[in-house]
Design goal:
It is built from 3 helices and 7 strands. The chain has about 200 residues and is of the alpha+beta class. It has one domain (about 45-190). Strands 1-2-6-4-5 form a 5-stranded antiparallel sheet. Strands 3-7 form a two-stranded antiparallel sheet. A hairpin with a 4-residue loop joins strand 4 (about 105-115) and strand 5. The longest helix is centred in the first third of the chain and has 22 residues, at about 5-25. It is elongated and about 135 Å long.
């Protein structure tokens, strides 16, 4: 081999070696940043006080019962609406009602939402109320005029309501209702408001 070839082969070998050594070891700057996220869901918690609004016996046509009760938001989220769900069951003890329904003759009047300053929210018979779901914490026009709170119940707040039950008296005797029993269950259904951009 001539010297040029030997020298050229040596330079090529050295270049290849340097390439392998240099290509396999290099350094660079680096940095790492991290972030965390926490999701904590709010709670909806509505309570009614007292839990038994009315429990009466010996009722007769013409009787009127007025009671106050509170709806309290014990949760961390505001409640924009509280819908009233009504379920009532009549027991005709003597099977002599002949088409008359005690639910038609018990008239429910929500006289006032004291916090909304909303007088006479609604007047309905129990049977009519079963097919509706009124919002008990809405502020109407009169409540706006009288300066009541905004609709809904804020977290940690409460609304005090006054309700009246009246046993409607007809012109004819209502003997067919004697001894009958009525079991009323009210459910107060709270719902969350619309989601917001946070």
């Amino acid at each position: 081999m001539n010297i040029k070839k030997t020298l050229g082969l040596g330079v090529a070998s050295a270049a290849l070696g340097l390439t392998l050594v240099g290509g396999g070891t290099f350094a660079y700057f680096s940095d790492t940043a991290s972030s965390t996220a926490a999701f904590n869901n709010g709670t909806l918690s509505l309570t009614s006080d007292p839990s038994v609004i009315v429990d009466l016996s010996n009722l007769k046509p013409g009787d009127v019962i007025t009671r106050d009760f509170k709806l309290t938001n014990d949760g961390s989220l505001d409640i924009p609406k509280v819908l009233l769900k009504t379920l009532s069951l009549v027991t005709d003890t003597k099977s002599d009602n002949e088409g008359h329904n005690l639910k038609d003759d018990i008239i429910v009047t929500f006289l006032n939402n004291n916090d909304k300053r909303q007088p006479e929210i609604l007047v309905k018979s129990l049977s009519a109320l079963e097919s509706e779901s009124p919002d008990l914490v809405a502020k109407g026009i009169l409540g706006s005029i009288l300066g009541g709170e905004k609709s809904g119940i804020r977290a940690g707040d409460k609304d005090t309501l006054t309700v009246q039950f009246a046993f409607r008296e007809n012109l004819q005797p209502q003997n067919y209702y004697q001894g009958d029993k009525l079991q009323l269950t009210w459910s107060f259904e709270a719902s969350q408001g619309k989601g917001v951009y946070k």
